[in-house]
Amino acid sequence: METILFHGSDKVIDWPTKRGGKVHNDFGQGFYCTPDLELAREWACTEYPSAFANHYCFEPAFDLKVCDLSGPDYHVLNWLAILLENRVFETRHPVPQALKAYIIQTFLPDLSGFDIIRGYRADDSYFDYARFFLDGGMNLDQLRDAMRLGKLGEQIFLQSERAFEALVFLSAEPVDRSVYLPRRQVRETRARDEFHKIKYGPKVFEGIFALDLYRQQIKNDDARLR
After folding, report:
1. Percent helix, strand and coil across the chain, each rounded to 5?
2. pLDDT computed for residue 166 by the predictor
3. In which domain, by residue range, is 101 found?
4. Max CA-CA distance within the chain?
């Protein structure tokens, strides 16, 4: 686990708390960080006029349990199930509703025993990819490729009280929005352009689609998901 973490925000956060985070966020309510300072500087640049990169470290005495959703024990449908469980996602069509319920029921991992979760960051672009897959617009391989687009980065999520006890605030630096807001926009634009290429690529009719998961009753241990 990285010893130094960063959190981009419109304010200095010298005392993070679990309740301070949004309820309907990627992995639930908690505190989201990154080991990449440049990404934290970009994430700090939102609609607010101020921006800060907060610096933290973990006390080495704490033995924290980490779940790495990018590791070999998990696949992209585990990430998607977590996302669909936590993010607000509404559709009036019965098929995507049924597929959403099946994905959550079948692929949602038990994360209750972990202090920290590491996985893809589901900004608006990533959430569009997930929605597109659920609507049948792309296959599983395309969704997996889309997660790596634009290097939007992975995030580290603190969910347990023990993780918050281990986290130590070091400092906060102001972020120059005139520099890092354009960088964030370029990164996201690049991801969307690459996604467009994947959407209309040569394998558009191949592979496993969301509806196949339900029709074939594909389970979490299916080798095709790795």
Report:
1. 40, 15, 40
2. 94
3. 4-225
4. 52
3-state SS class at 155 = strand
Closest CA to 143 of 215, 189, 78: 78
Q: What is the pTM of this model?
A: 0.85
Decide if 64 contacts 58 (C-beta within 8 A).
yes
CA distance 58 to 73: 25
* SS3 readout for 106-152: HHCCCCCCCCEEEEECCCHHHHHHHHHHHCCCCCHHHHHHHCCHHHC
Strand 154-158 and strand 167-174: pairing? unpaired
Altogether, the residues listed in the chain come to a count of 226
How confident is the prediction along the chain (226 residues), in pLDDT tens digits per residue? Answer: 567 999 999 999 999 987 766 666 778 888 999 999 999 999 999 889 999 999 999 988 788 999 999 889 999 899 889 988 887 766 667 888 899 999 999 999 999 999 999 987 766 556 677 788 888 888 998 888 777 665 556 789 999 999 999 999 999 999 999 999 999 888 878 777 877 777 776 666 788 999 999 999 999 999 999 8
Provide the domain count of the chain.
1
Closest of 120, 145, 151 to residue 207, by C-alpha = 145
CB 198 within 8 A of CB 141: no
CA nearest to 109, candidates 138, 56, 148, 68: 68
**Interatomic CA distance for residues 65 and 31, integer angstroms:** 16
Instruction: Tell me the residue type at 88.
Output: V
